[in-house]
């Protein structure tokens, strides 16, 4: 075990480390060799663990991870997105949402893509209430098929989800961000975990803060990632309680919701609390454009969800929203990209963890 760690920790080439970390590794290696020679077994094992930590901390994601194993992978994915998304631009928001829902349950490991199988007899995240309106699964399958034709069982579904989310937003005129790759696919998908980990649109600020913090995301990330609501649509059940029975009281409307906006929603969109099919733009009048309009609506008490309104109940998040509105779209795009890259690193599986699925909807047999 230690000999393997010494020569190539966790399968990572030491030469890929930064000069500082490479120096640290080599110094530790010298100490391990010295201790092994003189029989200091206890200290020897401790340093073996330290060497493992050094290796493990760098056995993470990297840009162009497939440069050697499948050099055309990212181009194939980009070409597929550029060919199909213009014909269904609303799918960009769905694919962006798909990555969020993937990363918040067991990390960014493609577990949200798995189907129920008779072999496991286990239901998956797909059936959980937060995921029942997700779209884009067949699109991901199409991308995977195209990549598999070039490089069988090399590119993970988790990486495809991350790259497709970015590329589809770019095609619709949104920002570009870096997507380090090297994720591996999970083999477990549990609907109860999706219900627990995905913040519902009815969340208050405390719930949002706790949920994001549990994933290593801060309040700035919360605001920026909420900005994804600048594109796409939602269904009435996600917010109709704000219109008809807020806090469980029939006829009560959510006080922070602009009354004129609420009336318009009830008269022209969700005419009944039982409406489960009507779709509503999250950023009315600008739902196909990645811009700052969503944040302006939130400040004007016209955020569609209770979770949108919750962002104004914290001095910190409210202040940051104001900064974004007063700033430039270029600034928001850059900051949003950083938050997406950060989210894309949540609890990733790398190295020998998980697997590379042959088909995104099923674990390998």
TrEMBL record:
Q: Which GO terms describe its molecular function?
A: heme binding; lactoperoxidase activity; metal ion binding
Q: Does the keyword Metal-binding apply?
A: yes
Instruction: Check the record and name the Pfam families matching this protein.
Output: peroxidase
Which residues are annotated as active site?
Answer: 101 (proton acceptor)
Keywords from UniProt, A to Z, are:
Calcium, Disulfide bond, Glycoprotein, Heme, Hydrogen peroxide, Iron, Membrane, Metal-binding, Oxidoreductase, Peroxidase, Secreted, Signal, Transmembrane, Transmembrane helix
Q: Which residues does Ca(2+) 2 bind?
A: 230, 283, 291
Kindly indicate whether the keyword Iron belongs to this entry. Answer: yes
The subcellular localization recorded is:
Secreted
Identify one Gene Ontology CC term for this UniProt entry. Answer: extracellular region
> Which EC numbers does the record give?
1.11.1.7
Reactions accelerated catalytically: 2 a phenolic donor + H2O2 = 2 a phenolic radical donor + 2 H2O
Boundaries of every Plant heme peroxidase family profile domain copy: 60-364
Membrane-traversing stretches: 38-61
For the site labelled Transition state stabilizer, the residues are 97
Q: What class of enzyme is it?
A: oxidoreductase
State the disulfide connectivity. Answer: 70-151, 103-108, 157-360, 236-270
User: Where, if anywhere, are coiled coils annotated?
Assistant: none
| Broad class of the protein's primary localization | secreted
Q: How is the cofactor bound?
A: Binds 2 calcium ions per subunit.
Q: Which family does it belong to?
A: Belongs to the peroxidase family. Ascorbate peroxidase subfamily. Belongs to the peroxidase family. Classical plant (class III) peroxidase subfamily.
Q: What is the stated purpose of this protein?
A: Removal of H(2)O(2), oxidation of toxic reductants, biosynthesis and degradation of lignin, suberization, auxin catabolism, response to environmental stresses such as wounding, pathogen attack and oxidative stress. These functions might be dependent on each isozyme/isoform in each plant tissue.
Please report the name of this protein according to its UniProt entry: Peroxidase
High-level lineage: Eukaryota, Viridiplantae, Streptophyta, Embryophyta, Tracheophyta
């Amino acid at each position: 075990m230690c000999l393997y760690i010494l020569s190539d920790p966790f399968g990572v080439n030491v030469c890929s480390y930064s000069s500082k970390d490479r120096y640290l590794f080599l110094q530790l290696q010298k100490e391990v060799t010295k201790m092994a020679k003189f029989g200091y077994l206890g200290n020897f094992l401790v340093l073996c663990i330290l060497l493992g930590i050094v290796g493990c901390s760098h056995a993470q994601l990297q840009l162009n991870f497939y440069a050697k194993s499948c050099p055309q992978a990212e181009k194939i994915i980009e070409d597929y997105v550029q060919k199909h998304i213009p014909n269904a631009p609303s799918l960009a928001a769905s694919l962006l949402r798909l990555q969020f829902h993937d990363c918040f349950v067991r990390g960014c490991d493609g577990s949200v893509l798995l189907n129920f199988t008779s072999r496991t007899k286990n239901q998956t995240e797909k059936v959980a209430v937060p995921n029942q309106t997700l779209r884009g699964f067949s699109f991901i399958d199409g991308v995977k098929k195209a990549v598999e034709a070039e490089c069988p069982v090399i590119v993970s579904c988790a990486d495809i989800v991350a790259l497709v989310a970015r590329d589809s937003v770019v095609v619709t005129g949104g920002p570009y961000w870096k997507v380090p790759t090297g994720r591996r696919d999970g083999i477990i998908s549990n609907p109860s975990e999706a219900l627990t980990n995905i913040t519902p649109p009815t969340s208050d600020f405390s719930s949002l803060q706790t949920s994001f913090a549990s994933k290593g995301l801060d309040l700035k990330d919360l605001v920026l990632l909420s900005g994804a609501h600048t594109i796409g649509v939602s269904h009435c059940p996600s917010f109709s309680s704000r219109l008809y029975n807020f806090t469980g009281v029939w006829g009560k409307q959510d006080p922070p919701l602009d009354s004129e906006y609420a009336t318009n929603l009830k008269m022209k969109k969700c005419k009944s609390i039982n409406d489960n099919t009507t779709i509503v733009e999250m950023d009315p009048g600008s739902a196909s454009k990645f811009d700052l309009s969503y944040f302006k609506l939130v400040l004007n008490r016209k955020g569609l969800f209770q979770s949108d309104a919750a962002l104004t109940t914290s001095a910190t998040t409210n202040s940051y929203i104001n900064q974004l509105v007063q700033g430039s779209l270029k600034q928001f795009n850059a900051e949003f990209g950083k938050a997406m890259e950060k989210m894309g690193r949540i609890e990733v599986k790398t190295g020998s963890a998980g697997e590379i699925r042959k088909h995104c909807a099923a674990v390998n047999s």
